[in-house]
Structures are given as C-alpha cells and as structure tokens.
Amino acid sequence: MKPAALHLADVRKSFGKTEIIRGVNLSIAAGERHAIIGPNGAGKSTLFNLISGRFGVSSGRIELNGADVTRKKPFEINRMGLARSFQINNLFGNLSVFENLRCAVLWSLGYKYSFWHKLSQLKDARERAEQVMERIGLNRRRDTKASLLTYAEQRALEIGITIAGGADVILLDEPTAGMSRSESDRAVQLIREVTEGKTLVMVEHDMSVVFGLADRISVLVYGEVIASDTPQAIRENAAVQEAYLGGHGAEEETEPAHG
C-alpha cells in the first residue's frame, strides 16, 4: 500500500507556555488536493511551517511519502520532494522571470555547487525554465525583472518557482491573497494545471478557491483539526459552521518573528 504523501501524528507546537498546535493528526493521500482552512489565529501558518521544517515540532511525528522528516531542515525536506510558497512573495526582484526560474531548477538537475558551469551554457536548465515559464503564462515577460511584474504575475512566478524543482508535494500559502476575482479565477486554473498529478496542500481564506480546487478540506480551530472531509461534507458540518460564525480563534497566532 502506497504511503500517504503527508502524515502528521499527534503534532504539537508551543511557543513558551502558549500551545499553538494541539495534537494534529492528518493524512493526505498522494495526488490529493487538500485545503487547510480555519479562522484567524487557528494555527494554519504554524502548521505549514512545521511541515516544511521552518519550525521544529514540540512533539509528534511528520512523514513525507513514508519517510520521517520530523527533525529535518527545510532544505533537506525540499530535496526529499516537498516545495512551498509563502504568503509574501519570495522572489529575486532584480532578476528576470527567466533567471528566477532557472535558479529554481538548478539543484534538481544535479548542478548543486558546480561553480565551474556557465549558466548560459546549461541547455537543460534553460529548457526546464522555459517550460515552466510557458506553463505559468509568463513567456512575454521573460526578460522583465520580477520587481516590475504586476502582483498577480508575481504570484504566478512564485507558483512557478515552487513547482520548478519537480517536487511531488506542493504547499501553497494563501496563493490568491490580494487578488481580484478575475485574477483569482485565473490563479485557480493555473494551480489546477501545474499541480496535475502532484499532491497539493494549501492554506486559503477564499472559500470559492477552496471549494473550487480541493478534493478534501481540513478545518483547524485553536490548533486542532475539528473536521477533515469532502467539500460537501465540510460545507454541511455544524461544528465547522459554528467555528466560523461563532468567532472562535479570533486571536492572532503567537509566533516569534524569526523562524
């Protein structure tokens, strides 16, 4: 039996005496599109940071494709097949669209710390970057600096960088935040296309995006998963409705500013 793409067993995280994640158990199947939703302060960003290794767990276990990554560093988890985006764009502003994508593909192509290679001569890196650039619809902006792109284009480039290394588990943190409805609709279509055949886990506040993309949805309230089910079942779940309408989890998450 194929292991879950992501498996969390009694994962907990405290900052000082404040417990933010309170025993999360969650399994996400390979190839599944899974959304994590919840009110402000529920612990969603903290959970993402634990999965990607940015924060260390206080207790519990995290597995990626059956391998224990609980104590792994972010770059080690990335090399094992997980990539993530952030709420705030994490781009090289002075590099072009193409150059940002080429940087993103180098390690996965085996170049690692090969300082003796000239980037301009790396045909495979150029071709992979151009393929990703076409998939995210930024061909015409190939030589434009990332800092000069529109906000929606920057988010598309961020998604492109996330998938460029070939990871099979993709974490997207608020991928449509700050977008207009038309921009959001285009982003949903892009995400659907570029994550085809991959495992997608996303944190998202826009419920139209969540219900338009997710195969399953987990609801996090006060650091605990109160429901994990199909979109239709989540929509009809009384506890979920109460969590959103009753104002639970209104406080902001208590996290240190550093990772």
From TrEMBL:
Q: Which keywords appear in this protein's UniProt record, sorted alphabetically?
A: ATP-binding, Cell membrane, Membrane, Nucleotide-binding, Transport
The entry's protein name is ABC transporter ATP-binding protein
Q: Which domain of life is it from?
A: Bacteria
Q: Which InterPro entries would you find in this protein's record?
A: AAA+_ATPase, ABC_AA/LPS_Transport, ABC_transporter-like_ATP-bd, BCA_ABC_TP_C, P-loop_NTPase
SUPFAM superfamilies recorded for this chain? P-loop containing nucleoside triphosphate hydrolases
The terms under GO molecular function for this entry are: ATP binding
PANTHER family on file: CONSERVED COMPONENT OF ABC TRANSPORTER FOR NATURAL AMINO ACIDS (PTHR45772:SF9), CONSERVED COMPONENT OF ABC TRANSPORTER FOR NATURAL AMINO ACIDS-RELATED (PTHR45772)
**What are the ABC transporter domain coordinates in residue numbering?**
6-247
